Amino acid sequence: MTTHGLAHPTGRLEVQGLVDAIGQNTGIDGLILKLSTGQWETLTSYMQKVTLPAGQVLFKQGAVDRTLYLIESGALSVHFEDRQGQIRLAIVGAGSAVGEGGFFSHMPRSATVQANSVCCLWSLSPQRFAELSNRRSEIALEVALAAGAVVSKRLAHRKHRAAVT
């Protein structure tokens, strides 16, 4: 499902579910992205809303894609595929992000990400991020800093380490 509008007919910000999830996530790799309502409306116009059914793969290890995904609801399993099978690395939930490694590194995906339950995500492609950077650099900077912080926190917490995807 893809949506591009800014507000629901009720007047509620369309991305409010994501804003709430980010605000409520107290996990180690929670996304810290504090924007004004107007900035959220602008950011929403650069993202696409994606709904994944349980079991669907978002991206596979080795895929060449730099899209960043912000998680509004649901849980995603992150696993590495070795010669013997799959090794679960983490479960990533609402208020966090996946795809941050490829977003920054321009390298193939380091793990496979699959929906454990129905998930609502917001995707930000590298092309749309570049447009955002050119038009609203202050918002793009906040997104980049928030995604970079997720990378840093995941790498720093070895005991609870989630894969940087």
Textual characterization of the structure:
This protein has 165 residues and is α+β, with helices and mostly antiparallel strands. The protein has one domain: Jelly Rolls, CATH 2.60.120.10. 32% of the residues lie in helices and 26% in strands. The chain has 5 helices and 8 strands, in the order ααββββββαββαα. The strands form 2 sheets. Strands 1-8-3-6 form a 4-stranded antiparallel β-sheet. β4 (75-82) and β5 form a beta hairpin. The longest helix is centred in the last third of the chain and has 20 residues, at 137-156. The protein is globular and about 50 Å long. It starts with 15 loop residues before the first helix and ends in a 9-residue tail after the last helix. 36% of the residues are buried. Mean pLDDT is 88; it is low at 1-11.
So, CATH architecture?
Sandwich
Q: How many domains?
A: 1
- The CATH topology name reads Jelly Rolls
Q: What structural category characterises the helix and strand content?
A: alpha+beta
Arithmetic mean pLDDT? 88
Global geometry: globular
How would you name the oligomeric state of the polypeptide chains in this document? Answer: single chain
Q: Helical stretch count?
A: 5
Largest β-sheet summary? 4 strands, antiparallel
